[in-house]
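Sequence in, structure out. Go.
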Amino acid sequence: LGRDYAGPRAPKSFPAKLLALLRARFLRGGKPMLFLPTELITGNGRVLKSVLSGLASDTGQPEAFREWLGRSVTFLDTLVDRIVSAEIPPIGAIAEPYALWAIQRDGMGEVFSHPSVKWVDDLVPYVRLKLHILNLGHTVLTQRWLLSRAPADETVRNTLADPAVAEHLNEIYTEEVIPGFALYDMGDEAARYVAMTLDRFNNPFLEHRLADIAQNHAIKIQNRIGAFIAWVRERQPDFTPRRL
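Output:
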């Protein structure tokens, strides 16, 4: 990363580009700045802040700049919940009407407002709902598709048109997932989110290909299903979801 940052040209990596931007801002007055990253990783704001702090040290940035970076640049964790099914070149995408952008305020007031934006004190419930219901459902359907002889261009909506597949997913939700959330007093909220998720899966205008969802499938199983089982077993050690 140090070599990437050196020289008069723009660095290649995104963190190094961002560090160059922040250093230029610091040299020209250093007004405070807010970052709301949307990478689909847990603690995306904290992770980005850690990467930049490490990069600033690795590239030998002055102490004054590093202090300003820690004091005047804020990185908040956020969660984006929206299904995007296909790109529209050169920079567009096909997305569903449903949209949620949850931002953990971390003591900050609402910087802006929008019907799809929620400023929250705790991001974890939103992360759990999306990860262990919507994302879990995608991974369950993808696993069935990978083990079947379904068409290569099979979509979420088309596979759910099979009553057996729809019943299998519904049983996972009603008999394993919602009871797991209920152990955290989130049963009613999970049931509402399940109903909304199934409606979103059946959107006739989204051609959400299972082949696209299947990327990094093993990691997704671990994060969406394995992590859910481990989370529930913190409250009920003998939890044994037969289907999952």
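Check: The chain has a mean pLDDT of 94. The CA atoms of residues 220 and 230 lie 14 Å apart.
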